[in-house]
Amino acid sequence: MIFVIAEMVLALFNKLGVIIILAFILSKIEGFRKLIIKKKMTFIDKVILSMLFGCIGIMGTYSNIPIHGSFANLTTIGVVVGAILGGPVVGLFAGSIAAMHRYLIDMNGFTAVASSISIIIGAVAAAYVYYFIKNKLSHWKTVFITVVITEIAQTLLLLALSRPSFEGLELAKVTLLPMMFVNALGITIFIGIIENIYSEYDCIAAGQAQKALKIANLTLPYFRQGLNYDVAQKVVDIIYDAVDVEAVTITNCKEILAHKGIGEDHHIAGHSFQTQTTREVIETGKYKVINTKESIRCNQHYCQLKSGIVVPLKERDRIVGTLKLYKTEENSITSMDIELGLGLAQLFSTQIELSKLDHQKKLITEAELKSLQAQINPHFLFNAINTIVSFIQFDTIKARHLLISLANLFRKSLSHHQDMVDIEVELEHVASYLEIEKARFGDKLQVKYDLQTNIFCKLPPLILQPIVENAILHGILPKKQGGCITIKSKKDKKDILLEVIDDGVGIKPDKLMILLKEESYTRSVGLSNVNKRLINLYGEDHKLQITSRFNEGTCVLIRIPYIEEQHTSEMEGVVA
């Protein structure tokens, strides 16, 4: 008996060698490697793996040793490995394929039913094990126990279903230990070979992560300047030199900012997108992998770029552009390329957001200093005090109100260190300023308020005062008979609308066109600062909107995004 068992073990070892060689060959095939390391397999991926491991199970069946009217085999290897690597679906499908084959090739054999059912049991056991190890392939003890359970189940079924029963018993005595030992060893070796794929990709991933951090470190000084043509060109140069791709592109939401590599003749900075895929990524906010030239859908049919990944760049939750990595061979974007693209995009998005915050703080500081200088410069202070003194002589109550307004103005100017303030605080600040200016200019300056009640929102500090000051100095005062300034507030579906309207001298069309662009023009300095702050906080859609008719007046509209949570938190604070 011992001699027969030893002889069978040796024979199974010889058969096992073929399967191990197959495992080694599979581990070197790129398509198989990509399937194995996928974090999320598609249904097609699972079907392919099921058929592959089902075929390995069939190969194990044909690697049999005839004995006592049946045969010992290595069918379990393909089924169990398939379930452990691919999950329950792969294991059950592969098991079904191998079990059906096992039954059909020996339909009249007294072990056909028992062996076929035991293969399915092995698949179920391995599928159950999959949830415990989840691609952590070093759990060899768990794998070994799975094989033992499968072989014991097959033996018990063999004893229960065999007729005559004594033949089943004789077969079990000879085959149980050899099949249990060789199948367990084969599965362990098979998985060990596959485990090297994970180790290799882990090393590559570590290298990619290090590369991404290096690129992020090199690009950080540039992104601090914001996302523009010069910055984008320097960044794509760095990426192109560091990454194994044929082209790199950075865009904003409307046009190409920079392109380096193949396709420079038609992917030109300042031009609109050449690919429909870029538009889709900006619209959906989800990255996209392109595997064929047709999928890229470049406007130029001769374009050599045939695969790539397009990843959105974000500032907070707002899409501000895309990062694109291209190659000239189809289906050449690997999982490592995807991870690198996503990692770079995330790092760049963080850098862009930080640059915006830095720029916003700088603008706020400039606005505070400018406003503070305007409020406390000797000329303003002298005029304000003279105005109050003149009222003391004939209207002490008015003089007291003006002193309170001046004090409030100074206090609010000196305390504007917050990034955001309540709309009521900003309106109070403007009201104090207007109270003093109205007292100075008398009937030449009229002020009206049209403010909707129950508006709760936060907005940047010192955002209204420069606009009101601009309206008085350049709109009302140059008009001989003076005029009126109206301040409005209301809420529409998405935004809080703030308007500063004057019926002054207005702005000539040629000046209106460059008002927010040319900071050297004295009138536009305050407006330009406010406009930049709004764009940096809320995006281009919330820039200042200025309408004006020469000799009729000007309207400046500010749109602040209305966030429901602000209203809720305000109300909760009141209730508390």
From TrEMBL:
Keyword Transport part of the UniProt annotation: no
Biological process annotations from GO: cell wall organization
Histidine kinase/HSP90-like ATPase domain sequence ranges: 459-564
Domain GAF intervals: 227-362
Gene Ontology annotations for the cellular component aspect, listed alphabetically: plasma membrane
Superkingdom: Bacteria
GO molecular function, one term: phosphorelay sensor kinase activity
InterPro entries: Bact_2-comp_sensor_kinase (IPR050640), GAF (IPR003018), GAF-like_dom_sf (IPR029016), HATPase_C_sf (IPR036890), HATPase_dom (IPR003594), Sig_transdc_His_kin_internal (IPR010559), Sig_transdc_His_kinase_LytS_TM (IPR011620)
Cellular localisation: Cell membrane
Membrane topology: Multi-pass membrane protein
PANTHER family hit by this protein: SENSOR HISTIDINE KINASE YPDA
Protein name: histidine kinase
Organism: Clostridium formicaceticum
The organism's taxonomic lineage, starting at the top: Bacteria, Bacillati, Bacillota, Clostridia, Eubacteriales
